[in-house]
Amino acid sequence: MTLKNQETTKKENIILTGGSGGLGRAIVKSLLSEGYSVTNLDIQSPKEIFSGEFFLNVDLTNEQDLTYTLSRWENLVSSQSQSPYGFVHCAGYGGPYHKITDVSLEEWDRIFSVNIRSAFQIVKLILPKFKKLQLGRLVFIASSLSIVGSANSVAYSASKHSLIGFVKSLSDEWGPFGITSNAVSPGYIETSMGIQEDQVPDHRNKIIQMTPMRKIASTYEIARVVSFLLNKESSYINGANWTVDGGITAI
């Protein structure tokens, strides 16, 4: 586990998983622009660490590594005289595009480990801290496949449906303490897990034509919704799954 950071005077810290990927970087930038500091938990180092960002290298599927890293995060926040304020679970793993009969148990477990178990482990630690403050924001990146199903993505879709149940139950359990829990469900995004500019044109065009907005979302468009749900002005939004997919699941 390694720690890298940039000096910051910001006082409210948001812990973020998967902050080194395409969507994660956009969320980091958006949160920094809102005045928060961000602790990025990822197995992959970002190409650049921004002012106000701390990076902790961690394997989210390794329980001991994650537990140790979370203790380092606690010490980090304390040493910087910052207050834990929010959590964004952006890390995600889709696995291979296979029929369920071709998915191994190991692959199934890895998908659930990244997409839901690591979120549980982090939330279990940070919720008591938020309870003391009577304030906290939890945001989980789900997917349009948390709303609908899809052939050849059974494990991934099941993990994202599970995440929504997790969010709804958290909202009831921790809402009385001023802690909100919400999900954001993107459709196709311009990222390595979504769809990229250099992918087969026919496939891109098919996706675009399926989407009422006739475009693929930018990471910025998703990140701004995440930032809003973390804002104190969103204090009465709780237990919701915000669909940000250009209308693809509405038709």
TrEMBL record:
> Could you tell me which Gene3D superfamilies the record lists for this protein?
NAD(P)-binding Rossmann-like Domain
Q: Which residues, by range, are in coiled-coil regions?
A: none
Q: Which domain of life is it from?
A: Bacteria
Record-linked PROSITE patterns? ADH_SHORT
| InterPro entries (UniProt xref) | NAD(P)-bd_dom_sf (IPR036291), Sc_DH/Rdtase_CS (IPR020904), SDR_fam (IPR002347)
**What's a GO biological-process term for it?**
fatty acid elongation
Q: Which Pfam families match?
A: adh_short_C2 (PF13561)
What are the protein's GO molecular function terms?
oxidoreductase activity, acting on the CH-OH group of donors, NAD or NADP as acceptor
Query: Family assignment?
Result: Belongs to the short-chain dehydrogenases/reductases (SDR) family.
Mind telling me what this protein is named? Oxidoreductase, short chain dehydrogenase/reductase family protein
